[in-house]
Design brief:
Blueprint (H helix, E strand, L loop, with lengths): L1 H33 L9 H11 L7 H22 L4 H20 L4 H32 L4 H4 L11 H14 L27 H24 L7 H23 L5 H27 L1
Helix pairs in contact: 1-3, 1-8, 1-9, 2-8, 3-4, 3-8, 4-5, 5-7, 5-10, 7-10, 8-9
Length: about 290
Amino acid sequence: MATERIIIAVLYVLLAPFVIGLLDGFDRKISARMQGRRGPSVLQPFFDLKKLFEKEFLTANKAQLFMIRSYLVFIVLSGVLFFGGFDILLVVFSLSTAAMFLILASTSTHSPYSAQGTHRELVQIMSCEPMELLVAVGFYLAIGTFNVNEIIKTSISPIAYLPGFFVGFVFILTIKFRKSPFDIATSHHAHQEVIKGVTSEMVGKEYGMVTLAEWYENAILLGIVGLFFLNSNPVSIVCAIIAILVVWFLEILIDNTSARVKWQLMLKLAWGVTIVAAGMNLLLLEIIRG
């Protein structure tokens, strides 16, 4: 069993960038069709990443380079912990630590665009963190453990006990994926008001490492979506994959049908959904357990 967990963790490190990069390519293609355009090749994200790593190595300062590398390392570590079947609460804390390194990398440049993006990134973290922590708590209350390897061995999928937590988590995914209407810290379009926010002063290999880290993180987030549907029945794997693809398409649809909102509204909506959806679900779990 330990060998199987190691193999899955290694597969995450090797395959996650290819899977998420391909999904990103289909994201661009589907978004283009929704907007009446043909769109780029589905392999364009890989071409972009390759071009970034082929550029001359430039960095604002050594501190920024260290922070970006640490950001990538902690994201990959989070994925290894999650797909290796370890404590999901530890995964959440590790992701939070990685986010702090990204913020420190942004502030080290003293750029006004990076500063503005950093402030908004902190607001996004404030919006997401409560729900991320509650998801881990929800799994514990429903299954009785934080251990991912034990959660997937239950006879009933966690979604049966955690529908409110699932709704809340899907809601914050729009923020985590940096999609409209919540792409306030750094959008996918460099010509918008904050340029590229926290990544404004990152170029070449540095920006490539940030992009790669985002792909690894998205794999973890989609993996958590699948975790809601997994159980001891092998058929649940198919259900989890379908759920992941449905949520992924829903995020694309929201991105292409919504205009960016102000950070105040984003914070209110995120906390409101967290309190209502997860809070009510938490109350029902306590009643059932009682």
